Amino acid sequence: MTESTVSHPRLTAEDRRPGLKLSTVVLALVPLVLLAAVIATIVRTDAGLADRTAPPLETLSIQRITLPEPGLIELDVVNDGPDPISLAQVIVDDAYWEFTVSPANVLDRLDRATIRIPYPWVQDEAHAIGLISATGVVFETEVAVAIESPETNRSSIARFALIGLYVGVVPVALGLLWYPFLRRLGRRGLNFILALTIGLLVFLVVDMFEEARERALSAPATLGAPILVPLLALLTAGFLMLAGQSLRRRQRDDGGLNLAYQIAIGIGLHNLGEGLAIGSAFAIGEAALGVFLIVGFTLHNVTEGIGIAAPLVGNRPKLAHFLALAAIAGAPAIVGTWIGAFTFSPFWTTVFLAIGIGAILQVIVEVGRLVYRSQRRHNEPALTWVSLGGVTAGIVVMYATALLVSA
Q: In the chain, which end has fewer C-beta atoms inside a 10 angstrom radius, N or C?
């Protein structure tokens, strides 16, 4: 039997050189240059419909309403449509009212502006607002409860920082106090607590996803914020998994300390969203809702400290690590209250929440790996009644405490 041989073309010395040849780069750039020319032509000529007779497509997204002082209403708006918008009139409580627009009265696509209306709003009353464009399109909104918005000064900054401390740092620190109790548990008890941590994190992922979707719908539709939620979450989870693999190759076993920090970071991003909700409630004048959220989130977040402490049972970390973990997981609530009270962007809030979802997804995988390895060493299946019970208990605990916020 004869062997068939396949001849390969000989590589010249020039072919063996690393890098791309200039001619190859030029061939790659030619389609890109032509594509750019086509896109520029489409934009410049409105796809050949520059002389269309149809009315313009006007969409105005009202991002935020504030009452900075008595007798003044401010609205932050974004042109969310393809055509320019010229604001012509403002109606407040069925009456036309004077107004000013900064920086300009005409908004091109994705332009932002602040509308100032000198209107004698009434404390604790609702006020209906209508913005009318030059073409007669009306964009309606309302002030649900008229209360002066928080002023950005040293006193208010300190007060909102204290709120964030109550909501984030304090409850997480209280949850970490269960660490000595966790150390007294046996292997099955520890696996139950680790599975409970997975349940807590699964609930947080679902909760953050719903929150991110809600915020995304408030962002300008042109930015496509809703689609960014799953995409950024998956990209973040993938990036953190690769980074974790790299760290594991370089570092010795640290008794779960790195995993505890990863959990704290993911929970911290979640608590940032809680701070945003509280700060926003006070900014729009719903003080009763804000206080209600503070109490509910404080009780809700105690369980997060247990999840952070669970991977540390095989280690004896210094007190400084516990303080750092409480700060990492809880301090973002302070930042969130500041952002929600003094400035707010639905788009960037969506981005941060989506990144938080990805971070927690990666942590779920890491904690699940710990439980799986422990059970495999004792010839147990991947899913046992202990692990399933822990996950279920974690979800039930988070759901029950969440009812304190939504009840």
A: N
Domain 60-143, CATH number (from 2.50.20, 2.60.40, 1.10.357, 1.20.1070): 2.60.40
Query: 15-65 pLDDT, tens per residue?
Result: 555 555 777 777 778 888 888 888 877 767 666 655 555 667 888 988 888
Q: Residues 275, 336: contact at Cβ < 8 Å?
A: yes
Give the pLDDT score at 96: 93
User: pTM for the complete prediction?
Assistant: 0.70
Check residue 83 and give its pLDDT: 85
Q: Do 398 and 303 contact (CB within 8 A), yes or no?
A: yes
Q: Retrieve residue 334's tokens.
A: 């302070």
